Amino acid sequence: MDSPTPEDPHGADRAGEDVLRDFEVAEVGDVTGRTLLHLPCGTGLGTLSWARRGAAHVVGLDPSEQAVETARALAADLGLTQDRAAFVAADVYDAAEAVPDRAYDVVHTGGGALRRLPDVERWAETAAALVAPGGFLYLVEPHPLADALDDETGSRIVHDYFVREHFVRDPWTDTGPDADPDTDPDPDPDSGGERAHPVGEVVTALARAGLRIDFLHEHDVSPVPRYGVLQRHEDGCYRFPADRPRVPLTYSVKASRPA
């Protein structure tokens, strides 16, 4: 999950930075010797973080040609050849035809990606098809409940949780893990822009695609200060103040394919 900064949005000197959050590392587990597909990968910092953690072969896919070129340059700075880290420019829906292998031990996806995709079932079928027997898909997304809250304090429900119309981008997709305002394209105009997909819709789509849901976790952390009241902690994540009620800001899903 890439986290570009204003000072250095995608500079080569960040090639060795580990941008994975603690709960992601704990939930995915040891990737030593495993193959991993990251879609979309943004500028590749998250993908390369998994490579540095021991993944035998990582592949990143992103619809932005510029982001992919940046990712390739970062991999070269780390001395990683294509047999260790490869990057492909393609639409997420076309991933099965675009990536070099047909099955991966881990398919890591999310980071706001679903907000740009109008067809969750098609996404789930595509991603599930790339999970090897005995492997799993790991998804991290902004929690759609957060889209129903007011932008100032995140304390009042002011929008419809089940809304299907497009909405204005929020800080996650403007400056969040897989977004880079210099490289990421605008949402597909035919899709109606970005939208929230209820958690139930996403989990059901993965189950229908043939994966077994191992867990659904909700987290009180955000990678960006989505609301002004959020406070940054030592782990780099933002949380509500301790003296106020919390709501989930992020959720994660692990869905496996039986061996």
Automatic annotation (TrEMBL):
GO terms for biological process: antibiotic biosynthetic process; methylation. Signal peptide: none annotated. GO terms for molecular function: methyltransferase activity. The keyword Transferase applies. Residues 37-135 form the Methyltransferase domain. Pfam families: Methyltransf_25. The keyword Transferase applies. Residues 172-197 are annotated as: Disordered. Coiled coil: none annotated. It comes from the Bacteria. This is Methyltransferase. It comes from Streptomyces cinereoruber. The lineage of its organism: Bacteria, Bacillati, Actinomycetota, Actinomycetes, Kitasatosporales.
